[in-house]
Amino acid sequence: SLYYTMAEPAPTTNEPTIEADPEVNRPFAILAITQHRVLTASSSLPPTTPTPPWAMTYIMRKLSIARPPCAKKGIDRSRVKLQGWMCAELDRLDLTHQKLKILLDEKLLLCPVQNPGRVLDVGTGTGIWAIEVPPNVKFEVDDCEEPWTFREKFDVVHARYLAAAIADWPKLVSQAFQFTKPGGYSEFQDYDLVYYSEDGTLTNDLPIQKWITTLLEASRDFGRNPCPGPLLAQHMRDAGFQNVQERKYKIPIGPWAKDKHLKTIGAWNLVQIEDGLEAFTLRLFTQILGWKSEEVQVLLANVRKDLRNPKIHAQFDLYDLQYAPSQ
């Protein structure tokens, strides 16, 4: 079980329209990024600007993430034989964790439970979320879509970023309800991965729009919903949770936003998307849709250009903090 000191709940109002930074007018080239600062090549920053010493450095797509000392309690990559793309995907998942922490103001949980004794993290991934809570953590390998067999219920059941991974969301949420203690919370954080722009700069003729639309269709054909976020609140109500609440966050793709906080989040988001393009795409496009590998690579080359185009203000949504006390 995991123990965690809970944070205050987030407000329930939706985020306003994201305003674009008019000074960003050159293709994005992320020179360096930290948890609170982002350095990009744009009209306000010459591309030759050196990488500052305070940065966790990203030179194009080369990634270096500082992990906490307790990371060995999760996936110890020095002792596990992994293919190169698998290591890259594990790094991308850790990067996504950092992006979400920035988005949520460094909070790991936002449901207002007091002094929980048992916390379950469903689909823990690399384990980075769990290892950032106090050290009495236990990892179990099992299929979360099979019947749960825990002997005791939990004060908090937590699940996030399971888009395109779950075949039966109502069943998963129902099991979360079944194994949440009376007065406890289940907290889901997940995406609606439909890309859109609020200023009309993301048009249907762009390769990035063709790619994401085709990718989402392929995931649905595979039986995995890539956009569970908008449906989670109703799934929770149907399962029996009371007082379900939700908040929608808009997440920019790239550092094009004027707001400094969103600019940083957008930079992290751009890097994790670029690092995951092939992992997201190749299997679904070649095995489900019948594309040739060469065709996929040509499309992805054009998608990368669109991702770095400061004139395209693409974004997607995270439905965060669907939390609800059970009876």
Relevant terms:
single chain; 327 residues; alpha+beta; 4-stranded antiparallel β-sheet
Runs in which pLDDT lies below 50 for 5 or more consecutive residues are: 1-13, 32-83
Q: Tell me the series of helices and strands, N- to C-terminal.
A: EEEEHEHEHEHHEHHE
Largest sheet: 5 strands, mixed
Radius of gyration: 20 Å
Q: What is the total tally of β strands? A: 9
Q: In what order do the strands lie side by side in the largest sheet?
A: 5-6-7-9-8
Average pLDDT number: 78
Number of helices: 7
Could you give the distance between the termini? Answer: 22 Å
Shape: globular
The proportion of strand residues reads 15-25%
Output the structural class: alpha+beta
**Helix coverage percent:** 25-40%
Describe the overall structure.
This protein has 327 residues and is of the alpha+beta class. Helices cover 31% and strands 18% of the residues. It is built from seven helices and nine strands. A five-stranded mixed sheet has the order 5-6-7-9-8, sandwiched between helices. A four-stranded antiparallel sheet has the order 2-1-3-4, covered by helices on one side. β6, α3 and β7 form a beta-alpha-beta unit. It is globular, with a radius of gyration of 20 Å. It starts with 29 loop residues before the first strand and ends with a strand. 39% of the residues are buried.
